[in-house]
Amino acid sequence: xNLSNHKVPDVVxxxxxxxxxxxxxxxxxxxxxxxxxxxxxxxxxxVHEMKRGRVLTRNAYRCVGPDCTTPCTKECPTKALSLRRNxxxxxxxxxxxxxxxxxSTWHMAETGLVPPGGxxxxxxxxxxxxxKLRLVLPLPxxxxxxxxxxxxxxxxxxxxxxxxxxxxxxxxxYGGGMSYGSVSITTMLSRIKAAATLGTLCCTGxxxxxxxxxxxxxxxxxxxxxxLFGVREETIKRVKIVEFKYAQGAKPGxxxxxxxxxxxxxxARMREAVVGFPLFSPFPFHSVYSVEDHKKHVDWxxxxxxxxxxxxxxxxPTDVDMVAxxxxxxxxxxxxxxxxxxxxxxxxxxAKKNIAMPIEYALPKVHRFLIQEGxxxxxxxxxxxxxxxxxxxxxxIALGADxxxxxxxxxxxxxxxxxxxxxxxxxxxRGIATxxxxxxxxxxxxxxxxxxxNLFLAWRxxxxxxxxxxxxxxxRELVGRTDCLVHLDYMKKAS
Amino acid sequence: MPKKYAIHTKPTxxxxxxxxxxxxxxxxxxxxxxxxCVKKRCVYKxxxxxxxxxxxxxxSIDNQCMNCLRCVQGCPKELIHKSSSPExxxxxxxxxxxxxxxxxxxxxxxxxxxVSGAGYPxxxxxxxxxxxxxxxxxxxxxxxxxxxxxxxxxxxxxxGKTPRHLVFNEKGDLLSRLPEFIDIPVPxxxxxxxxxxxxxxxxxxWAMAAxxxxxxxxxxxxxxxxxxxPYRSHLMPTLPAGPVKSRRGLKGFRLVELPWTExxxxxxxxxxxxxxxxxxxxxxxMDKSAKQKALALARAGVSxxxxxxxxxxxxxxxxxxxxxxxxxxxxxxLIEEGIRDEMTLLxxxxxxxxxxxxxxxxxxxxxxxxxxxxxxxxxxRMCRRCVSGLSCPVEIEKATPVWVASRVYNLFGAFHNQxxxxxxxxxxxxARRLRGExxxxxxxxxxxxxxxxxxxxxxxxxxxx
Lengths: 495, 465
Known about the structure:
The structure holds two protein chains of two kinds. By secondary structure, chain A is an alpha/beta fold.
């Protein structure tokens, strides 16, 4: 039974903010069209519209292409319609975020549902890790029946059971740190408002805690990173969770760097810095050289806000297992492992590709070691860095995580196309990762909030479906269940 | 501390328009002539700066477009599209991929390291060096004030022999011979690539860059013409097979290279007689016998061994064996013999990116030799037209030595800074310590199976999703 009294929010259909949403397919209508309306009738996805006696192909982006069971191209009596792949579609995306994953994330953010067909929404094309892992599910009807309402998606974050807050998130994910400055205030607020509605949390990143966030204090994680930008006593006191950022997956061991162009008057005020000058977050904390030093940090926070939960964000070196155990003994409630595929700001390509190990290796290593040390039940393990889909969430939980942090997925919901130019010039041309006043206005707060809510409702729904297939009543049951996974490279041939 | 090594890069534009991954297709037919056209609202002002290069018949727009797709998504008649460029996809080959070529162009043009937003977009792992990661340290850092601080990370390495100890007489005079080594400030040497539209001007540009950088350019002795004499201190001639005759011909060189031949010891003796002050490197093909040959050379006191892999970054006789595995095995053997510290191991063949430099060193090389990157820095498209005697589409042979030197200098600047990035993350402050430091490396084959190897069972009555 679901013990929480949290109400799952509703989906509100929220289409693209651009005139021409990008779809995988294009439909052309020739002059042969007699406006008979057959296509309007046959299409299950609302691609065609009849308007004042004319038929228009209004929503070609919703077309599922060859997966369609009632193709308009066949139904059309005059053969006026022709289907082909959209060339623009294939110029987007990359190995990790394939065009299919981008478009399916947009679909989820619009409708709150996984795509009906035509798009591979579960895995990318990186050729390893998540993309080679598959969930092993009992054949339909074989697992014990579970009602939708009985599936508990919640995760309790305080597993030390000490005097600190008993924070529970209603979905097994929360928003990872993206600083004010690296993304716009609208993006930041969209994420945090969505998190509040979904009953989860969102991290401020390193760059201060804007006053606009105050109404959502209970859903905010504030970050203390090496630059200590925007960290004040009052911000530490305001929240239930404080996150120490030791390193980040995108540029492990290299600290952070906000380019001068992005240090606008607002950002500078928040960070107590000078307008137009680049800001460096050094690596590492210059006051931490041991677990004992780290404990001193944790104790500071506990002295200022005794009930705060402490999360420790680290990246994934070889000795990440030792780091995790050290964090536990220093008093952390949450160990957050940030693998090398995420990251939203600018980072050297050589760092992103090469430094530290993928999250799929680090997480099981940490999970096993914490079990061996007998402390796994007393700490929450969060994974991030390359979690793109509900299937990634299920896979990493089965490998041993309690939950995940998202980042890039939120931005894709806001129609990021991963052009990788977050840092150049005035910042993101699509108004997501920018502090430029004009570009920022491209996003409406309500629109952004609902897109993110919709996306994560779709994730939630998909995770409920997966758990039901497994006959599980709680996401907690999936933690460390590697027997629910198979890796295609090591799969034994069926005899 | 000694003076900090710095490479002062200077933007050096392409002479030709580069080939880009995708292009803009904009139809005119059906245009509504909107008062505020999406083209006018381009954030990057791409359409305003548009021009047609009449010589190459290239529209500059494709070089400037940043792929934000706002015009594509905004045009009310959907007249603008983007399309992948088949020309870009067909650049290079499976090792020198279009992405690697484009990155090298960028580095040679700007001198900057490639930086991008929004996470790592590439494959999980791959062949050769792509099947390894470098490690980082959560709390140890190499210097007190960052990787570009006053207390700096040294990328310098020594070529030659480092003596184990010095011997003095009773009066305190040095008895042992002075160390026979040359130190170079970056662990990267250059050599002439095996093809390319190369002229004497190109050679001069490369030699100028080598001298300015403090490293070496290796080339067959007959290509080192008289105009390169001022650069001899930074050139490494490869001597042809046969007896070494002339002493004057080798004057001024500090480093010479001999290809492996059965009579290498005879030739080595004659080289030492003619140029006693030069260090000698012996050049070995990276194949099955390389380990034994390297061992024999090292035992005989050869202080530099240059292992040359294939164009693909593999063994020359077996493309399924990656350079990283051979380097690790040769390095290990030399350690077990107790002579690793008495010689220098150079690696070449297929080194295409800055990360390959660090990774080859982690696998056991003291320094690497790059070839095609110094050609691609000159806008080479790896089309191989020159191999069949056709003209070079980017007229490399006509480039001025100053431009060539500047482009290569920029490339080294970017490589150097990228080395600092990975070394900084590793907590290593001296490139000499990178050699064979596999404790700071992680290998796919040592990680993937222990984690996923047990995930192979699919019970009956189950399906995959």
